[in-house]
Amino acid sequence: MAEAKRAFITGVTGQDGSYMAQQLLEKGYEVHGLVRRSSSFNRGRIDHLHHDEHIPGQNLHLHYGDVTDAARMHQLVTELRPHEVYNLAAQSHVRVSFDEPLYTAEATGVSTLNILEAIRSVDTSIRFYQASTSEMFGASPPPQNEDTPFYPRSPYGAAKVYSYWITKNYREAYDMFAVNGQLFNHESPRRGETFVTRKITLAVANIVKGNQTELWMGNLDSIRDWGYAPEYTDGMWRMLQADEPDDFVLATGSAYTIKDFLELSFAHAGLDWHDYVKFDPKFLRPTEVDELIGDASKAKNKLGWEAKVLPPELAKIMVDADIARLDGAKEGQF
Ligand code: NAP
Ligand code: GDP
């Protein structure tokens, strides 16, 4: 019998890491995830993988560590000898990156080098995926594709630009299969609660249940290209199965404002968002990314990848899940 493929996922407790782990387990991979020690439970998104009878959870192994710790990254890559590494760990919140710019530079930027260096010294045939982002395009006008110049507008975007280039450099310098997925915003019921889509859908659920009467928000005019996270983790996997290493944009190509997402989410619950949403300047950013609309034709042509779920359906999926959660549904259902 052929040896099972081994994958190492950093950021396995996050939105994308949890879908990635689930999809790889379902494909028969042995999955190793990096987890941070925390004083409170931080495995809500992956706990169900150990208990779901349809998922081979016995093949999921968790290891304590932090991507800022180069020695630990070297040790884990040496011990695990993965075939594929998905580097999804990051301080991933744009607004927070203005409060913690140096930590963001370390966790979201320089840490990528810790993993690339480990791979370079252990085994250059290990395939490496870097979670790059549309935030690197920032102020460059849409539609944005793989040739669009970078113009980051936050410490987060700037840190991700470093990670993008060091990944590309290791590919060219050491002939490594190291690729960047330049992913536009992707959301799901597992999205962090302080990102705008989830903040909205959770508020709708709480308003429906009578737990909340107001929703405080920042700039409602920016335009985003929101897709559905499980489709994007499938795209990441496809990038690592390709014949040649290359960088790809993943996006839906659709454009919706925050107001549009409010409308979609509140209307799904029979509510008018104008009755609940209030402005709080603390949610504004010192510099904003006004318009992100991606062109994913390269991924369609070369990987056969295409986004299917668009914001009208996405908002319904997320509102329904948040209402179901308040009704006591188990986390693993989403
Ligand atoms: P997320 O939900 O915020 O998850 C981030 C993960 O990184 C969590 O597991 C977190 O662990 C872990 N992490 C943070 N700092 C770490 C550190 N120093 N050492 C080890 N682990 C650390 O993010 P996501 O939405 O899944 O996104 C996954 C990746 O794609 C991120 O790199 C993000 O920047 C990037 N990205 C996301 C989007 C999007 O729209 N979602 C778009 C483009 C790119 P804890 O659970 O312990 O906090
Ligand atoms: P980002 O695109 O990675 O920054 O993802 P976010 O979901 O954090 O923000 C998307 C957009 O929503 C940005 O233009 C924010 O300025 C805007 N926004 C407006 N109000 C809020 C809010 O209360 N929270 C967040 N996170 N974003 C908000």
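^ guanosine-5'-diphosphate complex. DSSP finds ten helices and 13 strands in the chain. The CA atoms of residues 20 and 172 lie 27 Å apart.
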